[in-house]
Design brief:
Blueprint: H1 2-21, E1 34-35, E2 42-52, E3 55-57, E4 59-60, E5 65-70, E6 72-73, E7 87-90, E8 94-103, E9 109-118, E10 120-121, E11 125-130, H2 132-156, E12 162-167, E13 172-177, H3 184-199, E14 204-210, H4 211-217, E15 230-236, E16 240-243, E17 258-267, E18 270-277, H5 278-298, H6 306-334, H7 336-341, E19 344-346, E20 349-355, H8 361-374, E21 378-386, E22 389-396, H9 398-402, H10 407-416, E23 421-424, E24 428-433, H11 439-454
Parallel strand pairs: 1-6, 20-21
Antiparallel strand pairs: 2-3, 2-5, 2-11, 4-10, 5-9, 7-8, 7-11, 8-9, 12-13, 13-18, 14-15, 15-16, 17-18, 19-20, 21-22, 22-24, 23-24
Helix pairs in contact: 2-3, 6-8, 10-11
């Protein structure tokens, strides 16, 4: 609530006071734009004011960005989470593209537009016409936010309340109070209930009445929101009843369908749902179908068998990887004698410090154990580079551990030489590094450290 109040104050400061003092300084204080957009998509109107570059002007030329104030308009101004309408303002002499519509605190509708052709003159008569397709898409999302709040209460509990929303032609976003993440099964139940209400083709009725009458009927109001004496009550069948100043469908079937995209936490005790309706939801499913078909084609399977085929391929891949690792270990084991024969010997103990690239950590440990078993006395330091990472293993025979060799201490310094770290027991340790180019230097350092301990 504090955040909402802060944002509202900032909005008023920026778009209320500033406008009143600057851009709207010459605009009649008594002027209020008559909004006819609840029942009309187009309306003849008079251009009362033109604002260009922050100043009142008498005319606007092609390509100019302007703010237009009309005596009446079908354009819904951004309010209550619903985005402002887009469309055109035109007559025989001029065409303007309206990109947004906002409203000042004292009821002036500001049409943000670009002159596409001709010249717009103050006092001229124009036709203001909204983009019907976008308005309809917005209404789908707005009506479904009302249904969503009811479905959330039914599935999660009566503690759920709206804490914010955004309704655009593309999607809806609904913030609500809830103490934990929604379980997948609950989300499915919410979406299913919404689609059932869409298919039931519930009638959407809108009535104006006093705030007291609305409350007696049980209409839901937003906590902390200020309402006038006269309010609009939006009723969806016998399912939902809320106070709302936005535009809505005439029946739920016009929404087509709803698809919930995501559910997430945005603050302590506040969750957010984002969803698509109508054509946006259909496009989502088309994209998903195309993706499934592409994947099915890649793995040479029918779409309905794709998941089973992927499970099979994963199983085969794991098996193949195990066989590859076994073969690598075998190759390393076969070369163990050569490694031992070429190892440096100090006071009867062998120092083995070599790299076996492409082994994983398990393979590296197995190889180190195999080498340790083949030498009577020695310290083995092995390195591997795989997937842009460095791994080290150090192990020492029991007799050398008793003489002060500590694998963990050795590996700590070796790993640091490659920008990593690690540690372990005196007889066995492992570590990781980042700098592949310094592996050979690290192995030489290991030899030096061991040599100093054995001498």
């Amino acid at each position: 609530k504090a955040q909402k109040d802060k944002a509202r104050d900032a909005f008023k400061s920026k778009e209320g006071s500033a406008w009143e003092k600057d851009m709207l300084a010459g605009v009649s204080k008594e002027l209020k734009t008559e909004f006819v957009g609840y029942t009309k998509c187009s309306e003849e109107a008079e251009v009362f004011y033109i604002i260009s570059e922050g100043e009142l002007v008498d005319a606007a030329q092609q390509d100019e960005s302007v703010i237009i104030i009309l005596d009446k308009t079908p354009f819904y101004a951004e309010s209550g989470g619903q985005a402002g309408d887009t469309g055109v303002i035109k007559n025989e002499s001029v065409v303007l593209r309206v990109n947004d519509c906002k409203k000042t605190p004292d009821g002036k509708y500001l049409h943000y537009a670009t002159v596409k052709s001709g010249v717009l003159e103050k006092g001229s008569r124009v036709i203001a016409e909204i983009d019907k397709e976008k308005r309809m898409a917005t209404e789908r999302n707005h009506t479904l936010t009302h249904l969503l709040q009811k479905a959330l209460k039914n599935v999660l509990g009566d503690h759920v309340n709206q804490s914010g929303s955004l309704v655009t032609p593309e999607r809806l976003r609904f913030d609500f109070t809830h103490f934990s993440a929604i379980e997948p099964e609950q989300l499915i139940a919410i979406e299913q209930e919404l689609n059932e209400k869409i298919l039931e083709n519930l009638e959407v009725n809108i009535a104006e009445m006093s705030i007291d009458e609305a409350r007696k009927l049980g209409a839901m109001a937003l906590f902390g929101e200020k309402y006038g004496d006269l309010v609009r009550v939006v009723t969806v069948g016998d399912y939902s009843m809320e106070l709302c100043g936005g535009t809505h469908l005439s029946s739920t079937a016009q929404a087509g369908l709803i698809k919930i995209l995501s559910e997430s936490g945005i603050a302590a005790g506040v969750r957010r749902i984002e969803a698509l309706t109508g054509n946006s939801a259909l496009q989502y499913y088309k994209n998903q179908e195309r993706l499934l078909n592409d994947i099915s084609s890649m793995i040479k399977a029918n779409p309905e068998d794709a998941s089973k085929k992927i499970e099979l391929l994963n199983s085969e891949l794991k098996k193949a990887n195990k066989e590859i690792e076994a073969l690598r270990s075998k190759l390393v084991s076969n070369s163990a004698n050569d490694v031992i024969d070429n190892a440096e010997e100090v006071n009867g103990a062998r120092i083995i410090a070599v790299r076996f690239d492409h082994l994983d950590m398990n393979g590296l440990r197995t190889t180190a154990d195999s080498l340790k078993d083949k030498v009577k006395s020695g310290v083995i330091v092995l390195a591997t580079t795989k997937d842009d990472k460095v791994n080290f293993v150090v192990t020492a025979t029991k007799d050398l551990v008793q003489k002060g060799i500590h694998s963990g201490n050795i590996i700590r310094e070796v790993a640091q030489a490659t920008g990593g770290g690690g540690g372990g027991r005196p007889d066995m340790a492992q570590a990781g590094g980042k700098e592949l180019s310094k592996v050979d230097e690290a192995l030489e350092l290991a030899k030096k450290l061991i040599r100093e301990k054995l001498c």
